[in-house]
Amino acid sequence: MIASPLKAKLQKYRPMRTITFRILQDAVASLTNIAPHKGLSGYQALLKSYVSECLRRDEAVYRFDANARFAEALKKRGVSPELIEAALESSRTEHASREAAA
Predict the structure, then answer these.
(1) Is the whole model's pTM more than 0.85, yes or no?
(2) Taking the chain, what is the end-to-end CA distance rounded to the nearest angstrom?
């Protein structure tokens, strides 16, 4: 029941893209000083870590389907997959009915 965008992110080898941006020198110095404390090789690794961390947090809020997250939470608490699927289908049907009436 993992959403396909999430499945794609679980792939070990994914395409990379090189980007360039300007950042303040004191920010680079701070990143360089903090990186070893987090067990990272340098400021670029730390910067990638920060970007990934924030993206995961924001994607959880904005991108991935709230129903799927709720269904996963119910599943972890022992609710049967059949009951979860029936509830999701009912929710989809009610939502489609409201959309059609609007």
Answers:
(1) no
(2) 30
Q: Are the C-beta atoms of 64 and 3 separated by less than 8 Å?
A: yes
String of b and e for 24-59 (b: at least 16 CB within 10 Å)? eeeeeeebeeebeeeebeebeebbeeeeeeeeeeee
Is the CA virtual torsion 72, 74, 80, 83 positive or negative? negative
- Report yes or no: 46 and 33 within 8 Å, Cβ to Cβ: no
The predicted-structure confidence for 51-63, as pLDDT tens digits, reads as follows 999 988 887 766 6
> How many residues are there in the chain?
102
